[in-house]
Amino acid sequence: MISNYVKKGYIKSPVKKQYNAEQIASLFFITLVKKVLSMENIEKLFRIQEETADKQTAYNSFCEEFEVTLSALFDTHIIEPTFIDQGDDGKKILHSTVTAVAHVIYLNQWFDDDK
């Protein structure tokens, strides 16, 4: 599956069969988000990210938002997005994506516990 992502240009080719941190971060993001978005829309998210922030900043923002959202869902706190009020559409889309993924994870956990 990873080689398909490379062939389609979602991530860069590995160097000497080794992936760097940026490629692994992209794979991590794809793995989580493909549960709720098509690869076409994930590719759009990558394009938005490239226009608004460097890869490191984008990945850190994703991780922070994901941790806050998961914590809020599993600890039953109100979700307080980390940057939704800053007016940036890319950040709002990231928040919505992370919220959707977190809800899918929460529901799967609930169904697994309810066997």
From TrEMBL:
Pfam families: DUF1836 (PF08876). This is DUF1836 domain-containing protein. It comes from Paucilactobacillus oligofermentans DSM 15707 = LMG 22743.
